[in-house]
């Protein structure tokens, strides 16, 4: 009998996870909460509040769900995994104690310090009278972080002192404290590590493009495009990442009472000598990194999730295609500050072996039209034998998509291409 799965979330990441699961012969029904217009074609969407754990439990009971996969960080931090465990429901995604690695940047820094994991030094500011002193100590450039879940948008990186001051004042005003962090030079990459207490599997490393506009300019966003594998993560860099970052963290997480069963997203900065530092940990798959990583997994995706949820990933042979994937995000007018939604989308094409249109902020309106429903609307992934061909495929399609006021970066993959 096939398994019934509930995927929590409604972005491109969850669409990608659902599409991957649909290929598994072991899966019966796929339910998505809340989902988007894309996941409607993969399974059944449910309009519930995913931050209300009881609503999720009701859904699990109603549809005899065998495995829950939690996409976004907020329900993880909110203890959904803890609640599912009380019900003895299998869940991919850490408990709230593990999710604290993403929920609190200060906590993550403390743990990294304790484990000697390389990362930028940082100071917490609580008082505006300390601003000038700390800015003298740290920059330029300055990295200012609010310690809140902000989908990658609560961070300011700037070489202009007055912008750094403004951003600190804004953070102090909103939260009462703010982190100032040492600026790390180098190239960024993301490593998604599937782990449980029995072991871990690193998925092909990817590179996100967090800034809004071409050439890595403009404000930070949730991510405007990505590709995998990322050549900056060579064999020797991988070995350093495993030895200095992944293994110590895995050992520590496995020694905790609440075992970590899910994806640990390691956001990395690789310096000129190929030495890695951690920029951030996330406790979930990345978005849009997932949209270029899951298409590269050739083994059964249900197995990957269920073995991890059961704490026996070491027994699973996870295999990958020797291909390249590149995704370009189509964003609404006004994203990331104030996205304009409810506009018609047209020009999409059916998915095929080498192209997948991942939906994010989309919905079907009352008239049956596909419309925008969020900041990041779609991510178009090309998959082929070369990165340049994958880029060509994605851009050819995204150029044909019509959404008034929308925009996308024209240079995804530029570091490699
Ligand atoms: P975070 O939410 O901590 O991942 O930060 C968002 C983005 O800001 C990162 O992906 C980097 O592009 C940038 N960033 C964060 N911390 C640093 C740092 N210490 N040095 C340089 N850039 C950073
Ligand atoms: N793409 C960055 C993130 O998922 O946090």
Fold topology:
Layout lengths: L2 E7 L2 H11 L4 E8 L9 E2 L7 H10 L4 E4 L2 H5 L2 H7 L3 E3 L3 H8 L1 H10 L7 E4 L5 H8 L3 E4 L9 E4 L2 H15 L2 E4 L5 E10 L2 E4 L4 E2 L2 E3 L3 E4 L4 E4 L6 H21 L6 E9 L5 E7 L6 H5 L7 H9 L14 E8 L23 E5 L2 E3 L5 E3 L3 E9 L2 H12 L19
Parallel strand pairs: 1-2, 1-4, 2-3, 4-5
Antiparallel strand pairs: 6-9, 7-8, 7-9, 10-11, 10-16, 12-15, 13-14, 15-18, 16-17, 18-22, 19-22, 20-21
Helix pairs in contact: 5-6
This protein binds adenosine monophosphate (AMP) and glycine.
Describe the protein:
- There is one protein chain.
- With 417 residues, this protein is α+β, with helices and mostly antiparallel strands.
- It folds into four domains: 3-95, Rossmann fold (3-Layer(aba) Sandwich), CATH 3.40.50; 121-181, Dna Ligase, domain 1 (2-Layer Sandwich); 185-315, D-amino Acid Aminotransferase, Chain A, domain 1 (2-Layer Sandwich); 324-398, Phosphoribosylglycinamide synthetase, C-terminal domain (Glycinamide Ribonucleotide Synthetase, Chain A, domain 4, Alpha-Beta Complex), CATH 3.90.600.
- 29% of the residues lie in helices and 27% in strands.
- It has twelve helices and 22 strands.
- β1, α1 and β2 form a beta-alpha-beta unit.
- It starts with a strand and ends in a 19-residue tail after the last helix.
- The mean pLDDT is 96.
